[in-house]
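#struct-pred

JT: dropping the chains for the assembly here, can someone run the whole complex?
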Amino acid sequence: MRALDRKLLRDLRRMWAQALAIALVMASGAATFVLASGAYRSLDETRRSYYERYRFGEVFADIRRAPKTVEEQILAISGVAAAEARISRLALLDIEGLAEPATGQAISVPDMAEQRLNRLHLRAGRLPERERTDEVTVNEAFAKAHKLQLGSTFKAVLNGKKRELKIVGIALSPEFIYALGPGDLMPDDRRFAVLWMSEKALAALFDLDGAFNSVSLRLLRGAVEADVIEKLDSLLARYGGTGAYSRRDQLSHAFLDAELKQLDALRRVMPPIFLLVSAFLINMTLMRMIALEREQIGLLKAIGYGPLPIAAHYIKFVLAIALVGISIGFLIGVWLGQGLTRLYADFFHFPFLIFQNDADIFATAGIVCVVAAVAGAIRAVVQILALAPAVAMQPPAPPRYRRWFSGRVPASIRPSQLTIMALRHISRWPVRAGLTSLGISLGIALLITALLSFDSVDLMIDVAFFRTDRQHATLNFTDDKHSRALQAVERLPGVLRAEPYRAVAVRLRNGHLSRKLGIVGKPKEMDLSRVLDVAFQPVQLPETGLMVDERVAEILQLRRGDLVEVELLEGRRGIRLVPVTEVIKSYLGLMAFMDIDALHDLMDDGPRVTGVHIAYDARKQGELFAAIKSTPALGSIGLQQHALSRFRETIAQNINYMVTIYVVLAVIIAFGVVYNSARIQLSEHAREIASLRVLGFTRAEVSRVLLTELAVLTIVAVPLGWIIGYGFGWLLIKAFSSDLYRVPFAIERATYAKASLVVLAATAVSALIVRRRVDKLDLIAVLKTRD
Amino acid sequence: MTEVVFEARGLTKVYRSGEVEVRALAGVDLELQAGELVVLLGPSGSGKSTLLNILGGLDHATSGYVRFRDHDLTALDDSGLTAYRRDHVGFVFQFYNLIPSLTARENVALVTEIAHNPMTPEESLELVGLGQRMDHFPAQMSGGEQQRVAIARAIAKRPDVLLCDEPTGALDSKTGIRVLEALSLINTELGTTTALITHNAAIREMAHRVFLFGDGRIAGMQVNETRKPPSAISW
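RK: done, full complex below.
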């Protein structure tokens, strides 16, 4: 081995702590990149291939009732590759050990043929036999939540009649990757079940013999989805179609998509920030580290080494660090990425998993790290090589410090000479000091970015659950009822207050922009479920006109006062022009509100209600639930408390894992920067420190020179970090938004404080390490090499 | 001793060190013969080191002319100077300038690996009497030993000239003499032209010629008719 390479190995060994700190910073940058991209691509690919293999529908439509023969007409629509008509109805479930009523979605499976679309993946057992009204295949999540097995039974109210159902199969479906009950915000596997039953049996139970009320389609390649939807809508309108919708609006897909979008946002925003920050830090650190090699570079040049071999030597040095960093980063990234993928896969109930780690992800992360490291090394080496070897071998000329804190400053407020030394170091190299501060502040910024998701979610919960929807429960009827049904609900045991609402499926159109959503009509004196304006203040619904949330306004480019075209997809149908009277705040879903009476007028079919929000006396909950379970007209019940805890749990599961990883990596980066800055500072001032020790200053006193400098740089870094963190956070949150939910941008003061504390702790630990090195400084060795 | 190895005419050097401008050389003319051992003597700041650095290709003159055999050093660019140092010059510095992370043998190998017709590191270390200490790191050696490693490193490439800047400056007299003996041995055995900077007047007695420096100029020159061996010198 060549002597220079030996030097390389020994230098690496000598500086292992610093090299490792740099490598870990780099590893953190590379790991976030690999982990987030890996998880996102794995899930995306898993979903894609799940959809493909199990033939998940592309267009869906619900209707009141259509004869089976219409299926042929649907198939004849140009662009349709396959169609499957089926029966899908809601049912209240009564499960042993579960006080609150649960909801089941009963879906028919063909009796004689294979499922053409939305095929089930059987985990156990089989599909129900033809015409068996007591056999059911349930979704795995529900079975697991209640520890139900093949042969277990539970009760369901199907079309007003309570029946006992026996589980003959446990399955997964691409339609219910995200199994969400009607009106629920988050999946609640205990309270929502998918019940696949024989088509014949369901037809008999729901009086739908020879008919269907739900259809899924797959399209030919190249078919124009919008055209198919339009033709399907006009075909199904007379059968009570509520508007066909594409996969984009299919609930499970939309939620999964929103989750993936969030993951994608994390992937697109966080890792590049991490990677760039770590690249910057590596660049800065290695540059300073190599600048310290000035005399050795001078010597190598003096004894005849050309610039290329010298540069190559230092490039090898940083490459070695980079390779360690990248390798650690890749290993951790792949490992955490697979963990994250599994976590999501479990949550989403995928039957299989495809791990994807594409070469381009590794290449990008690797190249960025290597370039940053090598550029840092080259910059330093080139600067030194520009010096004549005779000059390079000398210590640098004493820098010109600026005189301040001297002369006229009264002695009482004049800092000690040691403090002056520290401050002059900073003022002498303002750029270097600035970069160090910037480096530390980036550590703080990363922490804020990682932590702010919690704040945003807290705000979202506060607004959604405590300021907007304050009801205890929401009861949904199986069909729209006459508003007299409200009185029936009010008479239920324990009900303190009941507020009706009416939801109508519509398509809103503004020019060429359109979106299918539901208009919700609410009474004027709403108090449980409210509507908030953009300043979070409750608003009064106007006599006429529509209020839309910010997202809808953005999608359809609507402003207050605009007229929007409302295509009614229910009842008497038709198109109406309605003014937008207000743009309001909502973090969940696509929302449009009207006064309930105005909505009745718009529909022109008299007062009807879709459901009722209630507040109830908790002491009478048992009675209330029992009464609800035996009310055939109720299709489902949403419990706000459950929704909230499920929301928190889900967030905890999904965001926490990710955010915890980011926080840990941000801590490593923050620590790496501070530690390296401190160590380099020590090397740069070793001679001064040793001289001071020789002059009789104590260890504590001389450490103060370094620590004061470090402290000043850290203190400057804190507010800078807040500002940068705010910016990073804003980027992240902006990328988070989807149709299903908008994550508000909120950073609590505590988050700023936490991020700062972590960095201050890193500074304190680094200071202690540096202090220990000062204690061990070999005075003679430092002083004897130069005069 | 007829071949002229170095010829310098009107050499000046102005340094800008921080805020200050220092005139280190103020017009130096000089010739060195092949195989000669010269001592450059003078107080600090008299320009000895600057001259040595320019002769060794470690620095550029501000003005004037310096020739090594048929190479015009003042005309060489950075890579030319690098090649010149690599092929012809051996340096010994006051503070040894060893690479702390390399052993004695490896410090010498640093040079033998890039030289054309070098000795082995072992041979060269034997020459300076360090055959037994080859695998020690600089930190494990005394100052005198470290300096002798530096000499071994300088001579291992069989340089045409050996330039030593205060080689004994950081050493006590006994160790210093051992170092001088090594230098003298190399001068006689290998015929290496040697220039030696010192401000220790006693050392002048081992030289063929002595140049006296003051204020960036050569203030005088002495020729020693009889040279003392280093062992006979003391300070």
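JT: nice. The mean pLDDT of chain B is 88. Helices of chain B lie at 48-55, 78-88, 104-112, 121-127, 143-155, 173-190.
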